[in-house]
Amino acid sequence: MIRPDLTLPIPDTITSAHFIGIGGSGMSGLARMFLDAGIRVSGSDRADSANLRALADAGATVHVGHDAAHLGDADTVVHTGAIWPENPEFVTAKERGLHVIHRSQALHWLIGGRRLVSVAGAHGKTTSTGMLVTALQALGADPNFVNGGVIEQLGISSSSGADELFVIEADESDGTFLLYDTSVALITNVDPDHLDFFGSEDAFYDAFVRFGNEAREAVVISADDPGALRVHAGLDHANVVTFGRAADADLRIVDIDTSGPVSATLVHGDDSVRMQLAVPGAHNAINAAGAVAVLMTLGYGLADAAGAMEGFAGTVRRLELHGEARGVRVYDDYSHHPTEVRAALEAMRGVAGAGRLIAIQQPHTYSRTQHMYREFAEVLEELADHTVMLDVYGAREDPVPGVTGELVSSAFADQAHVHYVPDWQQAADYTAQVARDGDVVVTLGCGNVYQIIPQVLDSLRRTPEV
Fold this sequence. Notes:
Blueprint: E1 16-20, H1 25-36, E2 40-45, H2 50-58, E3 61-64, E4 76-79, H3 88-96, E5 99-102, H4 103-111, E6 116-120, H5 125-138, E7 144-151, E8 156-159, E9 166-169, E10 184-187, H6 195-198, H7 201-213, E11 218-222, H8 226-234, E12 240-244, E13 251-257, E14 263-268, E15 271-276, H9 282-297, H10 302-308, E16 320-325, E17 328-333, H11 338-352, E18 357-361, H12 366-383, E19 386-389, H13 405-409, E20 418-420, H14 424-434, E21 440-444, H15 453-462
Parallel strand pairs: 1-2, 1-4, 2-3, 4-5, 6-9, 6-10, 7-9, 10-11, 11-12, 12-13, 17-21, 18-19, 18-21, 19-20
Antiparallel strand pairs: 7-8, 13-14, 14-15, 16-17
Helix pairs in contact: 1-2, 1-4, 5-9, 7-8, 11-12, 14-15
């Protein structure tokens, strides 16, 4: 992993930018906005993808695989922290003396001093950002935005708008959310993670306190989440707006109904309004409350803001239905932290109804798995009827001896509730053998676990119900 050096200068002018890892959801969206700004764009990724093909259609020069020759005449190279320091394009760009900047610095350059809403938090920030963007559009605004995931009804993760307002998902994982000149900060929750970067929980919390205090206009923060409460205690901002179930929240959410697509009542002072969403899960009602609080901070009324939430259809890889076979529905969710897994499974429990819930879990990174394997096992055993455990998706990390999916599965109190199957085809076949008509299967993880879904659906079609 390359840690971003935010002290490096950002060029005043960029005419030709090369993106290393251009196929990722965040990087592809950023590259698209560079194209919108009239900048020549090239990029490379280790594998072909729909994102690469879409960028090529939009005018970018894209390459599969990494090679120094791909740099062409670029004057600026944009990278993520996920590439290796030995990447030939990264090394050559440094040797040539090109501007080599982290993706957050490229985004900072794009924002260019416009009024900025930054959404941060350990969980829910992609969904909350999508809610804000689609609600603003429903209210007649045309914001610029960069999200960490594709917004379902828009089919994109970023866009250049006509308004002065800019909405972004601000990544806390490497501290880069502190780079932006934020006007309104939304903090969805604060659950210690990424300690390989921050070093300690205190440093993690301190970063969020700084993020909130540096917002020029307002801080909107959860009134329920324990970590957010700790951050709130450290804030000395003049305009802090809270949201949540707590009795003292500035925007309260009550009467949450999760029997279908979630609905709830929002209360602000003497005003109240019923809010109906198109997505499931109590956590999404909480996310929507935070987005409504931001909209009210921006000047919209409670009823208008809540009504604008109704059209949000979700973001890709967040409780996304992929198909159905033999009466079994198969979903995917990006959850990769125990708190996120809990929220996803609780939402899926409402979707499953009388059916059983089968989780296919792919642990993400060796460090997180080693640190949290007991927590993963506890929440999976509590909320899923059965768990199929895959091996760890290492991402940027080298393997750690003894840290595999079996480490999580072995922590289950009742081994009858879990089956460790590192081979994907065997895992798909096993899932098909276990599943019955009316059950729901959900893949969980932010790696490539969603790619097992076609195998699961195929196995379901080929395997008669037992």
